[in-house]
Amino acid sequence: MWKLLSFFARFYTPGKFIRFIRGTGRRLHFLPKLMTIFYCMQDKDTPKFVKLALMGALGYVILPLDLVSDAFIGIGWLDDAAVVAAALRLAGTYVKPEHLEKVRRMFPFANV
Predict the structure, then answer these.
(1) Which of 23-37, 40-54, 89-103 is the least confident region?
(2) Domain ranges of the chain
């Protein structure tokens, strides 16, 4: 499992993530959850193994070729949403109120 996370983490960089958000990301319903992952990953208190998992999740979402191609309208983002949900579940207690507050400021009507 860690090899798989490490593989997808290679596709994550802050620059790639920003480009993704500017392009495709705005159309995603789970964008607030992606931003929660991003803020949790940036936190110095988040353990390295959790950061690796979060980087893997972001890398998977950024990567255009994954289990179900994002080109398939309607179902193409389901695998990405599942990866994001799993990453947030793993991060659990490391997601701080400050992370959620930053996301709420960006997306006032989002459910985070």
Answers:
(1) 23-37
(2) 2-106
